[in-house]
């Protein structure tokens, strides 16, 4: 995520989510079976899941983060 930090503030999630972008967007990272349980009530929250090919709603494939390089 260091490439993203050139134009955005990237920090580890202190209480919820694995990381937060610009104090606004919350991301939880996990496998294909990862649910929204940990971030269910948070606005602007997304799951980045490994081993999926396509986005479904706010569940995005983890590989999409590689497009920020």
- What does the largest sheet look like? 5 strands, mixed
SSE pattern: EEEEE
Question: How much β-strand is present in the residues?
Answer: 25-35%
Q: Indicate the overall shape.
A: globular
Strand order of the largest sheet: 1-2-3-4-5
Which consecutive residue ranges, at least 5 long each, have pLDDT under 50? none
Helical content band: under 10%
Number of helices: 0
What's the rounded overall pLDDT mean? 89
Distance between the termini: 9 Å
Whole-angstrom Rg = 12 Å
Query: What structural category arises from helix and sheet content?
Result: mainly beta
Strand runs, count: 5
Describe this structure in words.
With 69 residues, the chain is mainly β. It has no helices and five strands. Strands 1-2-3-4-5 form a five-stranded mixed sheet, with no helix packed on it. Strand 1 (10-12) and strand 2 (19-21) form a beta hairpin. The radius of gyration is 12 Å and the shape is globular. The chain starts with 9 loop residues before the first strand and ends in an 8-residue tail after the last strand. The model has no long low-confidence stretch (mean pLDDT 89).
Protein traits:
mainly beta; five-stranded mixed sheet; globular; 69 residues
Short description:
With 69 residues, the protein is mainly beta.
List the helices and strands and how they pair.
Layout: E1 10-12, E2 19-21, E3 25-30, E4 45-49, E5 59-61
Parallel strand pairs: 3-4, 4-5
Antiparallel strand pairs: 1-2, 2-3
